[in-house]
Prior knowledge:
Elements: H1 22-38, E1 42-43, E2 52-54, E3 63-64, E4 88-90, H2 91-106, E5 110-115, H3 120-129, H4 138-141, E6 167-173, H5 227-242, E7 245-248, E8 251-257, E9 266-267, H6 276-281, E10 285-291, E11 298-307, E12 310-321, E13 327-329, E14 351-363, E15 374-376, E16 381-384, E17 395-397, E18 408-410, E19 420-424, E20 439-442, E21 454-456, H7 458-467, E22 475-480, H8 481-488
Parallel strand pairs: 1-9, 3-5, 10-22, 13-14, 14-15, 20-21
Antiparallel strand pairs: 2-4, 5-6, 6-8, 7-8, 10-11, 11-12, 14-19, 14-22, 16-17, 16-18, 19-20
Amino acid sequence: MRPLCPIKPPSFSTPFPVRLPNRLTRTCLRWILCLSIVVPCIAGAETRPENMVYLRTIDQGIEQDIRYASAHNFTGHPLDGYAAGECLLSLDAAKALARVQTALRAQGYGLKVFDCYRPSRAVTDMGRFALVPGDPRKAEFYPRVDKQDFWRLGYVARVSNHSKGSTVDLTLTGPDALSVDSWTPSAGQVDCTAAYGQRWRDGALDMGTGFDCFDERAHTDNPTISAAARDNRQKLSRAMEKEGFSGYSKEWWHFTYSGEGSPKNVMDFPITPLGTRDALDTANQLIVVTTKNWTDIQGTAQRYERQGKTFRKYESPFPVVVGKSGLAWGKGLSSVEQREGPVKREGDGKAPAGVFKLGTAFGYDGTADTKLPYLALTSTIECVDDSHSARYNELVDGATVSKDWNSSERMRRDDDMYRKGIFIEHNTPASPASGSCIFFHIWRGPTSPTLGCTAMDPADIARLFNWLDPRRSPLLVQMPEAEYEQIRESWDLPER
């Protein structure tokens, strides 16, 4: 049901007088009359609630193109409240979306999000846009619609579910998608209903229209789109509905999560860049690995479990070995403040330092006693270390995936090193030449370094298999002792 009034009346801060059409004048009066009803619903206008998380801390593999943080949207300017291009959602919605991504990945597809939590000030910004002259992006986003009719036609809400933290705008990616274009303000405008190969290339499959296309062809069940586009919409809708999301009939990209824990109130805190603390605040399991210095090949690992706002040690520490050239700052959950020290590169023999998520467990056995997703290794599974490949830093089955790489590591080895292993999500999503195929795995021995992984005794990795639980958002924190002590207090990390 379309809301009846906005968060607050629009702010007329333009340096010139604005003459409103009669219909808009009446609309503004309705906005003002209902303001006293809506304001009590606004919660935490400036502070991010604890249950609102950055999607990157839950699933880095979901692509993000947050349009309202740039000028590539129907207003032609970044919206108020978008200080960073980051997706934030309620914790339960983010975890549900990660489950959708996992299911789609198994079928060869994936997700890309365009918008998630939207501050209420951004909704008001959209309202202002309809009241002032100018249509800078009309030719692309609403070529057949008058912007004064956005609300009447249901393309923009006066109170948006996005501001409640469990609504997401997204699309479907896959192997048949055209390559993504890099947008600049000078980019030409093409009608969002144009043929798939002609309109803006967002890196997604053909969904019948582009994102934020204010046109009947964007209605979820519109019969005039191609059979391929209908199939892609249905594939996306089925995957989302299976995890508790419901769609919106007028926007194929719009879904709302209605499971337990969904926020009920409108929020107005600004979207700011992700910090390392945000990732650590959501973790309930930590593995902390430290070495004596940047070049040492031996280290110590200690497990921790969250107890309230702090972490407590879990069982005893155990020895590990790292890269043959020691450690270097890696590409983890967020940008690590690099005071001094090397930076991880492909083939440098260094294990990554920083904060990292843990991904798929793998091994030689058909099944494993672990809560982590598990991949049984076959002779055709490999990890791609060719920076030029679209599969760089991914585990792939070479028998079923079209090969575009010149180098990779065979995962089913003649020794026991990968009999049990866990993918460390360094450089995920991958940047060329920043390092690939980093794992926990079994060591050759306590004095034998790796080519960049972190290795340990078979009994210790078996304990990790049993202990790690993806529902508890486990993280690896790995770096030299001095660097750990320098950042420990600011990141609220436990004492060693």
